[in-house]
Each structure stands twice: as structure tokens, then as C-alpha cells.
Amino acid sequence: MTITVTVIPGDGIGPDIVDSTVRILNQAGCGFRYEYADAGLTALEKHGELLPHSTLEAIKRNPVTLKGPLTTPVGEGFTSVNVSLRQQFKLYANVRPVISFKGTQARYDNVDILTVRENTEGMYSGIGQTVSDDGLEAEAVSRITRAGAERIVRFAYDLARREGRKKVTAVHKANILKSTSGLFLQVAREIAEQYPEIESNEMIVDAACMRLVMHPQEFDVIVTTNLFGDIISDLCAGLVGGLGMAPGANIGKDCAIFEAVHGSAPDIAGKNLANPSSVILASVQMLEYLGRHQEAQRIVDALAKVIAEGEHTTRDLGGTHGTTEFTEAVIAELG
User: Fold this and answer.
1) Is residue 235 part of a domain?
2) pLDDT tens column, 107-139
3) Which domain holds residue 258?
4) pTM for this entry
5) CA distance 159 to 332
6) Where does the Isopropylmalate dehydrogenase-like domain lie (predicted)?
């Protein structure tokens, strides 16, 4: 059966790097159909809203979505499109892998870390956000539920088991945030006992950040709450060459969205300068999610070879070439 993928090209550099990825998926023989939809600033300009009903329907209709970076106008009262999508479709698990690729000029050459971030609770839930009339005080509420904590921690352990990973580290701040982070840690300890074959570790978030910078090889799978996961996953991207090499998956019970995690970079939009690797690697996550492991590995191997050789890489990878040349090189490797 042919699978239809919802494709949201996004804003800024999004259309270019998403087009590169679709071309690579086609060259790899994936045989997808594509249904295109708008979101973000592009949708606002075309349809008068950041997240049109037709886009939501397309996401519901198809099993997976591939998404470029989106722009939410700042300071105009708009809710983040990415947060809205996660809440709308109950995409509770955000999975951010980082892996070292030879040729990226990163500080480390042997990093392979999966950050599993709870995606719908905590500080990003939007509960109780108020600013006093005089503008002198602001408040927000962080809410963690046992059900939410159990769901994300179990997801992380199941993922570790499925991928043959050896260790899961629960990252928290229970020494200070004794209620919310304390509940998360308590649940993580309970779930860990059900996976005796996997080494379980726990670490306070500030210590975890320090250890990631100094000794990232100590980490395998990290599971944590929303705000900490957002920060840690970007830190991990910095270990392997930056956000241009970092994909993300947002996974729920009946829906999954795969995306570039960097911004829309409007300053280089349309200039043939962007590195498409983040969306390419997001498509690899999508293929793995669909059980298409052979095509996923072919794309990773082709991407790795192009980056390692360095003859057709973009500026952020130390090269002098553009999006088009980089894409054509990956396509050539796929044969």
C-alpha cells in the first residue's frame, strides 16, 4: 500500500530544504505520495491564519507529516504553531537524536545520544500565564501528571529496548522543584525497575549539562520534562555540529510529525545556502517509524559519505557549496 505523507514546507529556508528531502526520498525508492499543506507565516499570508483547518485535516488524514521550520510572529499574541500542533494531536513524545558525522568539524566524533522529551506538560503547557496590570509581576504554572510522566518514561525505555541501547538517564531538578520534578523522578524510578536489562541513571539537570559538555559519551538515552528537554536537546545538537544536524520527531498515539528543529533563517531564504541535513535526518526518523529500515539506512549512508568527503558541503559544514549542490551529491550517492 502506498503511503501518503503530509508535507508542510514551512517558512524561510523551509521550502528549499524540504524539497531537497522529498527528492532524496524519491531517489531512495520510498514510493510515497505527498499532500502539501501550509502552516506558519506562509499560511498566515495565504489564508489569514497560522494553522488552517485544511492543514489540520491533512495531518489527521495521513499517518505521518514531514515539516520544515515555521515562523510564529513575535509579540503579536500568536501561539507557537509547533506547540499548537503538539497539543492538538497529543504528540506527547519529542525524540531528538544526535549522532556524530565525520566531516562536520564538531568537537566530538563519537556522540550518539537520544533525548526523549515530554512534549505537552510542564512549563510549556501554558497554564496560568499572567502578567500584572502594572507589568511588574508575571506568573506561569508548571503542571506534571503521573500519567504524563509514566507515558514518557515508558516510551523512553521501550525505545531503548527496541534499539538495543544500554542506559537511560532521567534528568530532573527534584532537589529544588520537589513537587513537579519530584513526581517525575519518583515515576522514573518506578518504571526503571520494570526494565532490569537496561542500566538506569538519574542526574540533576545542571550536572547533566556539565557532563554532556565534558563527557557526552557517558550518555545513551536521556528522558526528561519539557523545558529541560528543550534545552538539553539543543545542547546535544551543539556537540555534533549544530542544529543543522539535528532532527526531531513528535509522536503521539495516532499521529507523528517529523521536523527540522532549527528556525526558518529568513536572512538566507532563497539564497541556496541552507544545509538540508536536519530535514533529511527527520525523514530518516520517519522511515524508521514506518518500519522502512533499509531505505532509512541507505539515506544515512549517502548523507554520511557526502559530509565526510567534504567536496559538496554547505558553509556551516565548512564547505563552499549550496543546498542544491549538496542535495545533488546525496542523490548521486543513492545511485
Assistant:
1) no
2) 899 999 999 999 999 988 778 888 999 999 999
3) 1-111+240-335
4) 0.94
5) 33
6) 4-330
